[in-house]
Amino acid sequence: MIGIQLNGLHLVKPKKAVKKAFSLFCIPRRGKVKPEQMDFLNKAKHEIVEVENLALQTYNWKNNGKTILLIHGWESNTFRWMSLIEKLKAENYNIIAFDAPAHGNSTGNFLHVPLYTKCVEAIVKKYSPDYVIGHSIGGMTTVFHQYSYPNPAIKKLVLLGPPSEITEIMDDYQKILNFKPRVMRDLDIYFKEQLGYNFHEFSIAKFASNIKQPGLIIHDTYDKIAPVSASKSIHENYENSKFIETEGAGHSLNNDYIHGEIIQFLNN
């Protein structure tokens, strides 16, 4: 229904239609913290980091070991890391996580990778992580951050189920809303104006070719959100990376085996 409306609006007010299509793409429908999740989150030290009029809720599970930054995915929040955090705490890691704009306990109304990347840079400047772990769009952001703000002080990266090509994501977006080609053409132009890239230019696999740090990439064969081909493409371009393909872990990639592989990679 929304797609039909925007297709019609585009005929008379194309700029307004495209702006709405872009906003719709960037607005999460869920991901706020639920009351029952706060018991776990309240065990961390809470701080607010401000970025572009946003108040980012950060969490710190303090320890004496190396510092790890966790970057969650779309329509999620820091609570999604609970199981991994418990295991990292047992390994004495100092753990930093934060809720993305429009997610969890952070403010804001929308999110896209370039904005998420600016937020990550502010967090990195404050907490100086040794390692970064990103899930889904958080994995995309992990790569784009290192591409945009190269930081040799970050020693290792872990990417969990990351998409790679914006063209694939926008193809899915078009199919879901049944946008006319003319709408997508103008949306591509608007994307360039707002974010600095056309669809085909924004490629995590391409950006990964610039990264020097060791990386671990994990993706499930049957991921229904982001195709495993995305991680394979990233791995092919990311020279110093290891790729693990799982079966049955889904897009969440949240089980003991995967946590064990992450910890082994970080500890070695």
From TrEMBL:
Transmembrane segments: none annotated. Gene3D superfamilies: alpha/beta hydrolase (3.40.50.1820). Residues 66-187 form the Serine aminopeptidase S33 domain. GO terms for cellular component: membrane. It comes from the Bacteria. This is Pimeloyl-ACP methyl ester carboxylesterase. PANTHER family: HYDROLASE, PUTATIVE (AFU_ORTHOLOGUE AFUA_2G14860)-RELATED (PTHR43798:SF33), MONOACYLGLYCEROL LIPASE (PTHR43798).
